[in-house]
Model the fold of this input.
Amino acid sequence: MKRAFYWLLPHPFLTLLLTVVWLLLQGTVSPGMVVFGLILGILIPWGTAAWWPGTPSGLRLSRMAVYIVIVLWDIMVANVQVAWIVLTKPNARLRPAWVVVPLELRQPEAITVLAGTITLTPGTVSADLSDEGHSLLVHALHTDDPDAVRDDIKQRYERRLLEIFT
Done:
């Protein structure tokens, strides 16, 4: 039964999300729009299921909630910091740096979350992942100590992702 359900709805949450987004984009809720949204919500995940990686197992959702709160807080703080840097430091006084962050993470989904977190946080951007996936190249807008940036990423984000993706 579960296998048959998976064949019809390989990603049920995505089906629901696509249906809701369709209705929001239409600006109206009618039986026809709901049915068409459901059709899109079923066909798009079904048609792309072959390219989706396996679902990560062993996720700790409670720790993910804490991680999301920390990232949102860091984004707010970094916005203020970057605004301050842009307003008070002329370009000549900026100290940008490339930082190589060695990774203990091995799951592609966890590495993607880490790279996305770094890029979402103003002042840093994930630029490249090594061929073997053992390090991440990060650009920092302004830092006096690139090693501190690396250590902060590993301690604040990677350590928590290791706990989430076990």
Notes: The longest strand covers residues 97-102. Residues 47 and 135 are 33 Å apart (CA to CA).
